[in-house]
Design a protein that fits this description.
Length: 182
Amino acid sequence: MRHILSALVMNQPGVLAHISGMMASRAFNIDSLAVGPTENELYSRMTFVVGGSAQSLAQVRKQLEKIVTIVKVVDYLDEEHVERDLMLIKVRTDSTTQRSEVKELVDIFRGSIVDVSAGHVMIEISGQERKIQAFIAAVEPFGIIEMVRTGRIALSRVNSMSAEIEVGDPTHSAEKDVEQSA
């Protein structure tokens, strides 16, 4: 079973290495990973997709929560959430007919052509993983030259990880570290 885990982490060097090392030491493969800033500059959000049973993922979650630089971990398995992937893909278009056909597919999948050259178009598309996979299958006959995908990102429709963390909360040392360095 695949789980989408989201971790609110202190925005410090080495956090990603620490987390990925812990996951590797417990033989968990990270299928997808995205890391980026949040609305609060003290924190970053890591969203990763991992496979495993609910029991083994519960153990991983407990281990993650023990890491000092992790503020909170959420498993979106049983929570209403919105998730998205982003992909850039270069598709071969050797003729105007092929270019028109690819453009029609892009429109159907609500993507955007972001670059055009003599022999290919570059397309940006976002959505759930099954949408991305369906688009890849649809353009494969034209010839995929190159593609890159982001890791999955997700947010709860109901709860907010960040809202539960108060700035100045003494249980989270990131604020203290930033205040001391200022």
